[in-house]
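As a warm-up, study this chain.
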Amino acid sequence: MDFKRKAQISSQMIVYLAIALIVLVLIVVFATGGFSNLFSGITSTGQDDIGLAKSQCVIACNKAKTEVSIGGTDAWSTSSYCTWSDDIDVSGDGKVEGESEIGLKCYNDPISTNCSVVVDGVTCDQGNCESGCTSPAEQGGASQEERTEESNGGSS
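Now compare it with the structure written out below.
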């Protein structure tokens, strides 16, 4: 009778062997790259990309404020805020294509992160990244060249 008892496998041992076999199969599948097909369809959506871009633009804005406070208003158009751009899959279709997704700036839709700094009465903001900062007098009308020309009696 003792011989029959030693030949029996307990139900606990069967459960342990089954778990060990499953773990072994998962390790082999993972090591051979079998999970790559399983997770290949998971991609980030356009909203995640836009949120990341907004965060990067806030950082670029803060850096630009420092650049302008050190380098003066001439540094605005070449600041990190004005020169930052990225290609973003806005539609979430997995493709980046068209003007609405390529070369987006911080101040473009859908990112729309505003940034402004005033140095010595001169305002630098997203509206004048390409044209340069404007003083209160320039905001009201004539450009610096036009005012210079007027003060010289209109002669060039």
